[in-house]
Amino acid sequence: MPEALLELLEVPTIRAGAVLLGSIVAAFLIELFFRGVVLLLVRKTKTDLDDQIVAILRRPVFITVLLAGLRWSASIIDDGARFKHIGDPLLETVAVIVWTGAAIRIATLVLRHFSQRAGEGSFLQPRTLPLFDMFAKLILFGGAIYFALLAWKVDVTGWLASAGIVGIAVGFAAKDSLANLFAGIFILADAPYKIGDMIKFDDGSRGRVTDIGLRSTRILTRDNIEITVPNSIIGNSKVVNESAGPAEKERVAIKVSVAYGSDIDLVRGVLLECPKGQPNICNEPAPSVVFTSFGGSGLEFSLMVWIVQPGLLEDVLDNLNCRVYKALTAANIEIPYSKHDVYIKGLPEPVALPAPEPRPALALSAPRPLLAPPAP
Question: Which of 65, 89, 240, 312 meets the CB 3.0–4.6 Å disulfide criterion with 152?
Answer without folding.
Answer: 89
